[in-house]
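Changelog-linked ticket: S-adenosylmethionine example.
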Amino acid sequence: MHENDELIVTIEKFSNLGTGIAKVDGQVVFVENACPKDEVKIKITKVNKNYATAKVTEVITPSQYRTEPFCPMQKVCGACQMQFIDYDYQLKLKKQIVEDAMKTIGHIDTSVNDPIASPQIKNYRHKIQYPVSQKKEGRIVAGYFKPQSHEIVNIKYCPIQPEICDDIIEFIRENAPKFEITGFYEKKHTGDLRHIVIRSSADNGKCLVTLVVNATKTFERLNNFAKAIFENFEKVTGVCINFNSKKTNVILGSKTECICGQNFVEEKILDKTFKIGADTFFQVNPKSAENIFRYVKDEISKLDSPTVLDAYAGIATIGIVVSDVCEKVVSVEENKASIEKAKEVLLENGINNVELYAQDTTKYLKSIKRKFDITILDPPRKGCTTEALDETLSHTKQKIIYVSCNPATLARDLKYLVEKGCTVESIQPFDMFCHTYHIENVAIISF
Ligand SMILES: C[S@@+](CC[C@H](N)C(=O)[O-])C[C@H]1O[C@@H](n2cnc3c(N)ncnc32)[C@H](O)[C@@H]1O
């Protein structure tokens, strides 16, 4: 097999990175935009030692699971790799991804439950982060990067986010030049506007807009531009500037200033209200997150008023949501801004049985003697360190509830816990990121 070879193949499986898998002479070929049971003509784009990659040049016999994507940009944008696949079948494929990870990485034979669908499969994404640049003729572009590149697809319409986000971004594209705000040239590290970040509330539709700029302090033109955005949209309740002049792919810098209105939007999860700022972690699909939190709360309610450690807490969303069925909750989060937001949430919701610590989870656990009936782990995609898992084991009496956004690191961490004598009682997937290969899981682990 060589680069540019054209072949006809049948897609056998779906990979954990959202591509179809075919086999040619026993070698694995990852095929973009292909669905199991498709018969397709492909062009080989790269040949590596153990596998090759390819793209579809013609669908000869479509799989019965193919459907027309509702977004005209689906193929070029790359953000919704699975949108051309029927939603119910997407869920089946995601279940398979989790099962494969448990088998091949985790060596665990616990069965995986059917995924719980997202309550909305359009307009579900409530956090938008568009990179911004500028064309030679001066036109501002904003959208997602094309897959494996830093070329921006100028997205004017994105049906997976609330409609108002398209309008705000279009306003920014059209009006930035009037305020002499330039788009960022990544190669030369020049220009003003690097990213547009919008957090919109699924509860009240209000939006917080953050302009990430290549500067260390604000200036008059920028303040005036922020005011224009604020004035133009009734639903925009705040405009912030985040300063990021570093040569980095990290979107937000460490300093944010609120120029107009409030520096947060309010979101409601179950019966609690949260304040979400520009730099605080909050789930992108609040309605699906609500399903996860309800599931975790039900699991905790099986014990009578337990003590709970909520580790990797963000703004303590889980800790706060479950607090009314617990004797005590301790939420630990390393991001200080998130803990500050959590303090406000506790006050406003009148909650007094949640303790907050702005600290690394392992360091916090090493500093205490107390044990908890239940520990909730909700780490970032990289999962937990073995040190964090060891500390969790020695500070937990009955069970661990592990919330994970990455099946591979979940499987690795479950393997470690099983080797230490734990039992994986259940694995429940939740679809938070419809039309992408991502899948969230909640594993219940007992001792
Ligand atoms: C997936 S988010 C979960 C947030 C929260 N549980 C929620 O549902 O909104 C992971 C969080 O872990 C925090 N984090 C990352 N490493 C950490 C560490 N070593 N100790 C404590 N928190 C950490 C991140 O800042 C982030 O807020």
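Closing comment: Example verified and attached. The domain at 1-66 is CATH 2.40.50.140 (OB fold (Dihydrolipoamide Acetyltransferase, E2P)). The chain has a mean pLDDT of 95.
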